[in-house]
Amino acid sequence: MHALGKRDAHQPALDYAFAFDIDGVLMLGSNAIPAGARALKRLHEKKLPYILLTNGGGKYESDRVVELSDRLGVKVATPLLSLSSCGQC
Fold first, then answer.
1. Which of 69, 72, 73, 85 shows a CA-CA span of 20 to 30 A to 34?
2. CB < 8 Å & 24+ apart, contacts of 60-69
3. What's the CATH code, domain 20-83?
4. Distance, first Cα to last Cα, the chain
């Protein structure tokens, strides 16, 4: 299964996924945390499922995805991101 949840025919179905809090685990302010970015890249390369979570609103999901993809070096898709709210948008 890859990050978007689509399983390759030759891979067994997985009954788990990894969840990452963005703030303080993957990012510190606008900077990537190196170990978090490496972990996310490894999951992405191995096509293991994951989702990114944050309670830090204030940005549209589409803007946050672009920022995360750029800073973490992994293409993040909107379905992989869960924001608590976007009250300031």
1. 85
2. 60/86, 60/89, 61/86, 67/30, 68/22, 68/26, 68/27
3. 3.40.50.1000
4. 33
Q: What is the sign, positive or negative, of the torsion defined by CA atoms of 46, 50, 52, 53?
A: negative
Tokens encoding 10: 């030759």
pLDDT tens figures, 57-71: 677 888 888 999 999
pLDDT tens, position by position, 13-46: 778 889 999 999 999 988 999 999 999 999 989 9
Which residue shows structure tokens 């685990």? 25
Residue type, 84: S
